């Protein structure tokens, strides 16, 4: 029998990654993890330039180059130009991680249309336009690539007060699947990573290590750590994931498995006032 050389043994695509919203939390952990896997990293931020510079410093500690840009996805058309700027500065683009996001805590009957559009622009329109820019560059290069869209367990499960966030994340899942079909012939894979509760500033936990036993309703009994999510993203960004596309990988400590179980065990309707 002739020996078959598996495509997972090499990088054909550029070892340059862009991680949006990489000034803290999952974005920072992902940038550092990708640097540890040999990627130069473009780091974007919205408001926290100091946090983005700290991420760049940690990338440099891994012996890789970093470039930083401000990235305001409330204006997604202009923001998408940053993808080309970073790719030009770093000399290519093999991986895009759409991580930046925002959310709400208002009932749908109370939320204004402008706020609805702002969340959808950041969480869905922005990732689409950034992925479009990245994919065009990857296709022109002809060496394939990886797009990883960070969604949430709310790409599948709704949450009170988070209507536009849930709608956008669900839309991003279906966008990712459609992109996976359209880009497969170019050797570009597209997947989503759906975190549950992760101990980051976004969840008010300031990157503290999650404490065991603090979430009795979760099968693993704790929030996740940003580095746990980052390692899944790094796998999907690497050559070993070459046959994975159109997938949603839940990194939620089993939280999603508890829907019917938790509903059956609830003795009060406190969930309705969340």
From TrEMBL:
Composition bias (Low complexity) maps to: 214-223
Chain spans, region Disordered: 199-223
Record keywords = Oxidoreductase
Report if keyword Ribonucleoprotein is assigned. Answer: no
- Keyword Oxidoreductase in the entry? The reply is yes
Q: Belongs to which family? A: Belongs to the short-chain dehydrogenases/reductases (SDR) family.
Q: NCBIfam families given for it?
A: PRK12743.1
| Name assigned to this protein | Oxidoreductase
Organism field: Microbispora amethystogenes
């Amino acid at each position: 029998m002739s020996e078959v050389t598996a495509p997972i043994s090499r990088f054909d695509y550029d070892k340059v990654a862009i991680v949006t919203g990489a000034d803290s939390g999952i974005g920072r952990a992902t940038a550092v993890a990708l640097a540890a896997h040999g990627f130069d990293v473009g780091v974007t931020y919205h408001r926290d330039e100091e946090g983005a510079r700290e991420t760049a410093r940690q990338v440099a500690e891994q012996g890789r180059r970093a470039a930083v840009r401000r990235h305001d996805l409330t204006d997604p058309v202009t923001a998408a130009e940053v993808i080309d700027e970073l790719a030009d500065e770093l000399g290519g683009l093999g991986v895009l991680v759409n991580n930046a996001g925002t959310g709400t805590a208002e009932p749908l009957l109370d939320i204004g249309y402008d706020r609805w559009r702002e969340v959808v622009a950041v969480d869905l329109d922005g990732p689409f336009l950034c992925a479009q820019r990245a994919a065009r560059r990857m296709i022109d290069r002809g060496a394939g690539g990886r797009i990883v869209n960070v969604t949430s367990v709310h790409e599948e499960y709704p949450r009170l007060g988070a209507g536009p966030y849930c709608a956008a994340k669900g839309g991003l899942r279906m966008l990712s699947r459609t992109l996976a079909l359209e880009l497969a012939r170019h050797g570009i894979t597209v997947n989503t990573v759906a975190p549950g509760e992760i101990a980051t500033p976004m969840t008010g936990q300031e990157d503290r290590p999650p404490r065991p036993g603090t979430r009795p309703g979760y099968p693993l009994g704790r929030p996740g750590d940003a580095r746990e999510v980052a390692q899944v993203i790094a796998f999907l960004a690497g050559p070993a994931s070459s046959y994975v596309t159109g997938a949603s990988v839940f990194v939620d400590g089993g939280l999603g498995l508890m829907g019917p179980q938790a509903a059956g065990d609830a003795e009060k309707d406190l969930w309705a006032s969340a």
